[in-house]
Design a protein that fits this description.
The protein folds into three domains: 19-108, Muramoyl-pentapeptide Carboxypeptidase, domain 1 (Orthogonal Bundle); 123-202, Orthogonal Bundle (Muramoyl-pentapeptide Carboxypeptidase, domain 1); 216-354. It contains 14 helices and seven strands. The protein has helices spanning 2-18, 21-26, 37-48, 62-74, 85-95, 100-108, 113-119, 133-144, 158-170, 181-191, 223-227, 266-275, 328-334, 338-354, and strands spanning 218-219, 236-241, 246-255, 259-263, 285-290, 296-301, 320-323.
């Protein structure tokens, strides 16, 4: 009887392990012939990152398989066209899409140093134990503001915590040593010379951007006709965010149906991050853009690093996109998802600024 009970117990344990929803979820590989929401999420991430054109229809066909292969080759993965855990983890980690792979990574990394390192790139708050480029950017800012001495090593230790507390006390913030959205925004404000956040010795810190343009200065310029022909690689443009009053510099990386660019310095990265609520996101903002010629126009941009960049010490692993005005018919044909979304944002900003409706 005891032996029979033991056998039944063992069988039950094996079944629990084999058919656990969490483990089954982790082992999901998307491949040609499959359909559903997970395929649709995969396609949308590939579209957002420029590996797939068209719309996300939830059908894993030849075009999706080829797009997966392109992504895998670009990221030194086995180019078999199968979207397994490693492929999904890397793809969704870049696109911040709510995918199966991202869920697995989040749950499996909930303990240990790897969780701290992972959260440093995506969480709104930075705290003791976090590591990575966001921590390094924070430290660089605190060093410039004279709250922290030494070098920026990307490790959020006690000295960084003490520096954050000192900054928070100086600026009437909750002195908990956690660099949340309010603290990061205040630091960015101090660096741009807009607040009282800087320590007395930091008065000489230069601003990463500039003041807001007047509405009469802002011109409605077309990407293909006006903006793209005027830009050259490695030129600098200035982004001004009217929703936060923050501005930052971007360097031209490449030009296609939109502009690929990257923050010029660590300070620009930190300011941009604060403008987007302390997190990397594909959600675009309508912004004013000062071109190298000095002319202001309107555009839309996000702050999600993806693919490659050329600046090594700006705390931004990849590049971002800046969209400018295009004909909606053309955009619907060539960029029917994210491109159209940016065009709507641009049109909303222009209407808010001038009251005029862009009807092409």
């Amino acid at each position: 009887m005891k032996r029979r009970v033991s056998v039944i117990l063992i069988i039950w344990i094996i079944c629990c392990v084999l058919f656990s929803p969490a483990l089954a979820y982790q082992s999901t590989t998307l491949r040609a012939g499959m359909r559903g929401e997970e395929v649709k999420k995969l396609q949308q991430a590939l579209i957002d990152q420029g590996y797939l054109s068209g719309t996300a229809d939830g059908i894993f066909g030849t075009h999706t398989e080829n797009a997966v292969r392109k992504f895998q080759k670009k990221h030194n993965l086995k180019a078999d066209g199968l979207a397994g855990l490693k492929t999904q983890e890397m793809l969704y980690g870049s696109s911040s899409s709510g995918s199966a792979a991202q869920t697995v990574v989040s749950s499996s990394a909930s303990s240990g140093a790897s969780a701290a390192s992972s959260s440093a790139g995506s969480s709104s708050s930075l705290r003791v134990g976090d590591r990575g480029d966001r921590v390094r950017s924070l430290q660089e800012s605190l060093i410039q503001l004279k709250y922290l001495s030494g070098s920026a090593d990307g490790k959020y230790g006690n000295q960084t915590k003490k520096a954050v507390i000192s900054f928070q006390k100086k600026n009437g913030l909750t002195a908990d040593g956690i660099a949340g959205v309010k603290t990061l925004a205040a630091i960015a404000s101090a660096l741009s010379g807009k607040g009282s956040a800087a320590a007395p010795a930091a008065a000489a810190v230069s601003s990463p951007g500039g003041s807001a343009p007047s509405s009469s200065e802002i011109k409605l310029l077309h990407w293909f006709n006006d903006v793209k022909p005027s830009l050259k690689s490695k030129q600098t443009i200035l982004i001004y965010d009217p929703s936060t009053g923050l501005s930052w510099n971007l360097r031209v990386h490449s030009r296609g149906r939109h502009l690929d660019a990257e923050p010029l310095t660590l300070q620009d990265t930190q300011t941009m991050l604060s403008a987007f609520g302390g997190k990397n996101t594909w959600n675009q903002k309508g912004v004013y853009v000062r071109l190298p010629s000095g002319t202001w126009t309107i555009g839309a941009t996000h702050d999600m690093p993806h693919l490659t960049g050329a600046i090594k010490d700006n705390g931004f692993d990849g590049h971002l996109c800046v969209h400018f005005l295009r004909n909606m018919d053309e955009c619907e044909q060539n960029d029917p998802n994210y491109g159209v979304s940016n065009q709507r944002t641009i049109r909303e900003l222009w209407k808010k600024l001038t009251g005029e409706i862009i009807d092409f």
